[in-house]
Amino acid sequence: MSGRMGTAQGAALLVGAVLGPGMLVLPHLAADAAGPASVLAWAGMLALSVPVALTFAALGARYPGGGGVAAVVGLAFGRHAAAVAGWWFFGAVPIGTVAGVLVGGAYVEASLGVDATLAAWLILAAAFAANTAGLRTSGRLQIGLVALLVVLLATAVLTAAPHADAARFTPFAPYGAAGVAGAAGVLMFAFVGWEAASHLSGEFADRRRGPLRATVVTLVVIGLLYAGVSVTSVGVLGADMPDVPLTALLEIGVGPVARPVTGVVAVLLTFGAVNTYLAGAGRLGAALARDRALPGWFGKGGAPGETPYRSLGLLAVLSVPVLVGGDDLDLLMRATSACLAAVTTAGVAAATRMLPAGRHRVTAVVGTVMSLVGLAFCGGYLAVPAALAVVALLVLKANARRSYKIGL
């Protein structure tokens, strides 16, 4: 029985997978690293996204409902590679969710006067409580939150752009090529999520062309938004922009009324994104346990309709110390970017083996090369996915040894 999802709904879900609350702060972090030349990093990452996005769309068309990047990596390279890819995503969630709630906290403090750290703790606690109670962000609500973010970004760009000044683009590259590479490293946070095309493929009415059409529409939407936000934020606010650039742009374009509205919207966006990621990561943890990439004890509650309390508990145990000691938002986003960039690279590399010879495989090869370049921009933060890979392999080995002893 075929799915019923059309291009518009598929594109909405894909935009939601790629676009997140990180956009509330990434223009500031990128400009801080590269100055006005951060616009080059945005352009470079957009170029990188094209072959990667098209590759995952092709994977989705050929393997509908492919089970995620880890499953595709497992089919191409074996269960050890699948376990490593799974750990890269699972390990990124405690870091990325803390980065997300810190972004929301910063906007709450700037807009509503509530302490940023307190707001971050409250958002994180609410997301864990919602998941523990079995509450999920519905698909329609998630699409609504993404639409709200799109409207907010577009309003900020359109209303503030007339106040841009070309003088704010000079000096253009105060930190040289190294600064642009550094900006690209943190911007990886905004350019992951294209693998969702392979997850959603089975839901399209036209499973062969639906993922590709939705991906092309998403590339256009994301490209316009990111280009507009990157250029406008520098042109209006300058490279030395505030930590909450969206609030600043809206205040210039709309007026003081934008400040409290932006704070409330930031909370909704952050909670929605964190809640969704925790729900997915909880299930991923249970799946990793079933595949012996986590101790089997964490596998309980992973069946449909159940709540993976133990996996969620592990995520909470990992998240709390990150929030306690992780006040450096730039560091957290770069570490998360490195993990997610590794997942993306593994996925497109797997596609070079899974897709048949022809233009799709050529696109996958190009995507792999460009993903490796993007991965290199992460620099020393690649130590994080490297450490997670070691943990994944050690857990697999320990579980295999335990199974062997039980078998004896």
Please provide a written account of the structure:
This protein is mainly α and about 400 residues long. It has one domain: Amino acid/polyamine transporter I (Up-down Bundle), CATH 1.20.1740. It has 16 helices and no strands. The longest helix is centred in the first third of the chain and has 34 residues, at about 80-110. The mean pLDDT is about 85.
Question: Percent helix among the residues?
Answer: over 70%
Largest sheet: none
CATH class: Mainly Alpha
Q: How would you state the average pLDDT, rounded? A: 87
**Second CATH tier, the architecture:** Up-down Bundle
Transmembrane segments: 40-61, 110-129, 141-160, 172-194, 214-237, 257-280, 331-352, 372-396
InterPro entries: AA/rel_permease1, APC_superfamily
Protein name: Amino acid permease
Subcellular location: Cell membrane
Structural key phrases:
single chain; 408 residues; mainly alpha; Amino acid/polyamine transporter I; globular
Write the layout of secondary structure elements.
Blueprint (H helix, E strand, L loop, with lengths): L6 H12 L7 H9 L3 H25 L6 H9 L1 H34 L3 H17 L6 H22 L15 H12 L8 H5 L9 H28 L7 H9 L4 H33 L18 H17 L3 H26 L4 H19 L5 H25 L1
Helix pairs in contact: 1-7, 1-10, 2-8, 3-8, 3-10, 3-14, 3-15, 4-5, 4-14, 5-6, 5-12, 5-13, 5-14, 5-16, 6-12, 6-13, 7-10, 7-11, 7-12, 8-15, 11-12, 12-13, 14-15
What is the compact description of this entry?
This protein has helices at residues 7-18, 26-34, 38-62, 69-77, 79-112, 116-132, 139-160, 176-187, 196-200, 210-237, 245-253, 258-290, 309-325, 329-354, 359-377, 383-407.
